[in-house]
Design goal:
This protein is mainly beta. The protein has one domain: Sandwich (Immunoglobulin-like), CATH 2.60.40. It is built from no helices and ten strands. The strands form two sheets. Strands 3, 5, 6, 8, 9 and 10 form a six-stranded antiparallel beta sheet that branches. A four-stranded antiparallel beta sheet has the order 1-2-7-4, with no helix packed on it. Strand 8 and strand 9 form a beta hairpin. About 30% of the residues are buried.
Length: about 120
């Protein structure tokens, strides 16, 4: 049996973290199976961790949608779902107190977890 990729599904993500004070802008670009920007809306899970491996969950409840896409808090201070724009782009704004370091983790439909570089809230 030959494997056929599901077209129009997020297979990967690129996470870009902006400068952080008590607010940090984060852009998630969803990618298709060929590595191109997703050309449709996509839905992913999001959580924050205190470690780069994404294994230690962090309780921050201040994740909001930016100008592209939308985000919903499913489990208070724990887990979110985000929907991209039709170009696979999700803009997020994370807010936290100074001297906090976390990582944004994106859970893709195929089960893969993509972890950002550090969100270093300097205040």
């Amino acid at each position: 049996m030959e494997w056929t990729p599901i077209v129009d599904c997020a297979y990967d993500a690129v996470i870009t973290v902006g400068a952080c004070t008590t607010t940090c802008a984060v852009v998630v670009q969803l990618k298709d199976f060929a590595g191109n920007d997703l050309a449709v809306k996509g839905m992913v899970g999001i959580y924050l961790s205190s470690d780069a491996a994404g294994l230690t969950k962090d309780n921050i409840d201040n994740i909001a949608a930016g100008t592209d896409g939308n985000v919903w808090e499913l489990l208070a201070d724990n887990y979110y779902m985000a929907c991209s724009e039709a170009d696979g782009d999700i803009d997020l704004t994370c807010t936290e107190a100074a001297d906090t370091n976390v990582y944004l983790n994106v859970v893709l439909p195929n089960g893969k977890i993509v972890t950002s570089t550090i969100l270093d809230f300097t205040g």
